Amino acid sequence: MRTKLTLYQVYLTLCRSLSLCPKQKKDFQFFETSKFSNFIAWNHLGNWRIKMNKIFLILLTIVSINCLSFRSGEHENAEIVNKLDAPPKAIIKINLKYDYRVDGAKQGDINPQLVDAWLKTAEETLKESSEVTVSREDILANYFFEMTVREETNSFSTTVSPFISGLTLGLIPSYTKSDITVNTIVKDKKGNVLGEVTKKESLKMVGQILIVFVNVFVKPLDTIIAQRKDLLRASYLEIKQNNIFKGSKK
């Protein structure tokens, strides 16, 4: 009984410090199990959980803004493809999907702005090739790039590390790592697969509140955008080098 009371007092102290004190003790229950002497579960989270989520998001934002990003760099400074060696009057439509996975499990609710940013970058880098036209209309296109961007990370990067850092207001650094894979399948208007290419890099981010002074000179977003462009350019370069369009019908 003494252990339960102590844990509950810790819980109340934390809530009071955040001005989120629960009204009833039933919001907090304890269970005895064979493996754990004290197991904590929440039955009635309600507004308390919503407020905690908001606070966590604020802390996560603080850490995310003040961070440094590092890439593995397999395709760093990828060559700009000025000519894709596509057939004359080639009109290409990019269909892009974003696949986000944590510990191997596919996640939903992908931010549409992230998908749109990848699509716009994919179209802009493709337009660097002078002999192709990029369109978003199926009826106009005679070639299709079925592109899947997969980001794979783990629960330590998405939950544990940011949470620990957030509790200290960013004094303890947060660490996140993800693997970015761009898979491109080239199809003709009839849906025939002409070829497929895959490019991959990893991205690491370290967040700490004092990095705000470093960010005056180094912008973490610059690394992310550069990596995005390089992965796409490397994909287009391999499409050219493998002569994927060669022999395809107009």
Describe this structure in words.
With 250 residues, this protein is α+β, with helices and mostly antiparallel strands. It is 34% helix and 28% strand. The protein is built from 5 helices and 9 strands. Strands 3, 4, 5, 6, 7, 8 and 9 form a 7-stranded mixed sheet that branches. Strands 1-2 form a two-stranded antiparallel sheet. A hairpin with a 2-residue loop joins strand 4 and strand 5. It is elongated. The protein starts with a helix and ends in a 9-residue tail after the last helix.
Helix % is 25-40%
The computed structural class is: alpha+beta
What is the C-alpha radius of gyration, as a whole number of Å? 24 Å
Largest sheet: 7 strands, mixed
Task: Say how many strands there are.
Answer: 9
Q: Note the beta-strand portion.
A: 25-35%
Number of helices: 5
What is the global morphology? Answer: elongated
- Point out poorly predicted stretches: 1-45
Query: What is the typical, i.e. mean, pLDDT?
Result: 77
